[in-house]
Amino acid sequence: MFAYRVGILQAQILDKQSQLQHLTANRTLELEERKLRADLFDKRMEVYTATQAFIGVILAEGEPPSYARTGSDEEMARQFRITREFTVAIDRSQFLFGQHVEAELRQLWTNANDLHYHNVQHANDRPDDEEDHAQKARDLIKGFLTYDLNALMGDKLNIH
Fold it and tell me: Taking the model in full, what pTM does it have?
C-alpha cells in the first residue's frame, strides 16, 4: 500500500512539473514575442527619427543637410551624419514598413535634391533662364513644411 501511495504522489509531482514547464515555456514565448515587437518598434523609430531630422534641417537651412554648407566643422559633420542616417533609413524602410513608405522616403530624397538644384540655379539666375527657380524652391519647402510623417508611419509606430 505504501508503494502505491508513493507512486500516486510521484505521478502528481510529475504532472505538476509538466504544468510548470508548460507555463514556463508559454511565458518565455510571450517574452520573446514582446522583445521582438520592442526591437521592431526601436528600428522603426530610428527610421522615423532620421526622417524627422532630415526634414528638420531642410526647414531650418533651406537646403538638404548634405548641401547646407554653413557652420562649424562639428555642424557640418552633424549634417553629413543626418544625411547618412536618412539614406540608411530609406533602405531599411522597405523591410520595416513596406514599399509604400520606402517610395515616399525616396521621393523626399528626390525633392531634397531638387530643392538644392533650384537653390543653386536661383543663385546663378541668368536672364535667358525661363524657369522660376526661386518659386520652385519655395514650393518644395512648402511640401516639406506640410509633410505629415505621422500619417506615413504613425500606425506602424505601435509597440503592441
Answer: 0.81
Domain that holds residue 101: 44-156
Nearest to 152 by CA among 47, 63, 59: 47
Length of the chain: 160
Residue 119 forms part of a structural domain: yes
- Over residues 44-76, the pLDDT tens digits come to 999 999 999 999 999 998 899 877 666 788 888
Domains contained in the chain, number? 1
By CB neighbour count within 10 A (0-12 exposed, 13-18 middle, 19+ buried), where does 45 fall? middle
Q: Beta-carbon neighbour count of residue 52 at 10 Å? A: 16
Residue 1 within a domain:
no
Residue linked to cell 521592431: 40
User: Is-contact 92 48, C-beta < 8 A?
Assistant: no
Task: Tell me how far apart the alpha carbons of residues 140 and 89 are, in angstroms, rounded to a whole number.
Answer: 21
**3-state SS, one letter per residue, for 67-114:** CCCCCCHHHHHHHHHHHHHHHHHHHHHHHHCCHHHHHHHHHHHHHHHH
CA 56 → CA 49, 123, 148, distances in Å? 10, 22, 13
In a domain, residue 8? The reply is no
Query: Which range, 19-23, 26-30, 79-83, has the best average confidence (pLDDT)?
Result: 79-83
